[in-house]
Structure formats: structure tokens, C-alpha cells
Specification:
The protein is of the alpha+beta class. It has a single domain, classed as Gcn5-related N-acetyltransferase (GNAT) (Aminopeptidase, 3-Layer(aba) Sandwich). The protein has 3 helices and 7 strands; from the N terminus they run βαβββαβαββ. The two termini are about 20 Å apart.
Length: about 140
């Protein structure tokens, strides 16, 4: 793991958190699972309530997968969640799978700079499974 370089100010009730509670919160919202021993979870809490989080898993030295759930977030939190994969794990790219009917998630991923890498047609009852990719060189939320 390692020390993150970005601090989320708690001045306005915002607080960066990590661990099982965040992982389970994200997993519930993305219809997945969180495995504490194989994954890392980073979240944003406001006034005691988790409002955003990401699970990182399947790190292979070159890339890592993420699952993101967001109610609200800020730029400092974005800096923190991208610092972990790109600066701590030193991966070249992040992959984010999402379903084609999850319009809110699609909008968030595109806004963050992710691009569609591949699509598994009709792989879910609700449509396609889309794999998005964000390369380190294209991430606007980290400082090299």
C-alpha cells in the first residue's frame, strides 16, 4: 500500500477513509464483491456517511482494475484515488468495467478521462459489459 500524498480536508466535514467499510459500500452499489485480503478500498466520507469510494483489485504490475461508486466527490478526493494506482502501485493503466445501462457511471468515467477499451455484447441481462481504460499519461488528477 503506502502513504497517499493527498489529504482530504475535514474542514467541511469531508474525510478520506480506507478499508472494509468502504469496500463493502462500493461493492453493494456496483453489484460486486469486496475481498479485503486481495483489494484496496479508498473512500470519501462526509459527516460520518460514505459518499464515494473505489475498490482496486487484480493488480498485475502493469495495470489494475477499479470499481467506482459515487454520490458526491471533490477534486482532492479524485487526486487521492488516482494517486494510489498511478503513484503508489506505479501502474500504466487502470481498467474500469461497467454495464452499458449504467448511464450515471458512464458519464463519470468519461468525465474522468477514461476511454472505452472493449465491449462484451449482451453479456448481462441489462446490456453490454464495457471495459474502460485510463492511462497514467492521460490522467489529469495526478502530479508526477
Amino acid at each position: 500500500m503506502g502513504e497517499h500524498r493527498y489529504c482530504v480536508s475535514d474542514r467541511m466535514g469531508w474525510k478520506k477513509i480506507t478499508g472494509t467499510d468502504v469496500g463493502n459500500w462500493v461493492a453493494e452499489r456496483v453489484q460486486g464483491n469486496y475481498h479485503d485480503d486481495d483489494s484496496e478500498a479508498i473512500g470519501l466520507e462526509r459527516e460520518g456517511k460514505i459518499i464515494a469510494g473505489v475498490i482496486y483489485e487484480n493488480f498485475n504490475g502493469r495495470s489494475i482494475f477499479c470499481h467506482l461508486a459515487v454520490e458526491r466527490m471533490n477534486k482532492v478526493f479524485l487526486n487521492a484515488i488516482f494517486d494510489y494506482p498511478f503513484m503508489v502501485c506505479d501502474v500504466k493503466q487502470i481498467y474500469a468495467p461497467t454495464l452499458s445501462d449504467n448511464h450515471r457511471q458512464l458519464k463519470i468515467l468519461y468525465k474522468m478521462g477514461f476511454v472505452e477499451e472493449s465491449r462484451l455484447k449482451d453479456s448481462d441481462d441489462n446490456g453490454d459489459l464495457i471495459f474502460f481504460k485510463l492511462e497514467k499519461k492521460n490522467c489529469k488528477y495526478i502530479r508526477s
